[in-house]
Design a protein that fits this description.
Length: 195
């Protein structure tokens, strides 16, 4: 997909702040520091629309990025970062639950993981949580460029096995460095929006 326009519209903390134009939304979930911002920036060919940070746990709101005036990427707060207070984590949890449970324009969730490592308990819980709400999930296994070519398929299999990926969901290897997996990601996103 050729992205000619991309802008952040709002950083929301509750339902009343969400855009109400009924455009389709694709949410991005993942552990803090797993590469969600890099994934968005690679997809839209922009260096820093989604701000990357060396400090995990920086995204504390639902960030709505309007793409080509046609749909939104919604970046949700990263999970699994210990330095955030329990109270703060509960607040995020409530905000995310409200979004995933009630948002009718949400078409699918891209669950970002690091292909180098086995999915964490938090990753698996997030997947189960999304499936509880019957949302289509595409698992984006980032940092593919850091894995040697002859080990890639075994890393993908390990990820699929850990998640026990349901029919219709996929694991897509991806690299923000090389752009590998970018076309496949766009083609999946288009399919989700046509459903």
């Amino acid at each position: 997909m050729k992205v000619t326009k991309a802008e952040i519209v709002i950083s929301a903390v509750s339902e009343k702040q969400y855009p109400n134009d009924q455009l389709p939304e694709i949410a991005l979930a993942g552990r803090s520091n797993v590469g969600k911002s890099s994934f968005i920036n690679t997809l839209i060919n922009r260096k820093n629309l989604a701000r990357t940070s060396s400090k995990p746990g920086k995204t504390q709101t639902l960030n709505f990025y309007l793409i080509n005036d046609a749909f939104y990427f919604v970046d949700v707060p990263g999970y699994g970062y210990a330095k955030v207070s329990k109270k703060e984590r509960q607040k995020w949890g409530k905000m995310m639950e409200e979004y995933f449970e009630k948002r009718h324009s949400l078409k699918a969730v891209l669950l970002i993981t690091d292909i180098r490592h086995e999915p964490t308990v938090d990753d698996l819980q997030m997947y189960d949580f999304l499936k509880y709400y019957e949302l289509p999930v595409l698992i984006i296994a980032t940092k593919l460029d850091k894995v040697s070519k002859n080990k890639r398929s075994q890393h993908v299999k390990r990820t699929e096995k850990a998640f026990q990926v349901e029919a219709g969901d996929l694991v897509l290897p991806f690299s923000a460095e090389t752009g590998e997996g970018k076309e496949e990601a766009w083609s999946m996103i288009r399919q989700y929006m046509e459903v």
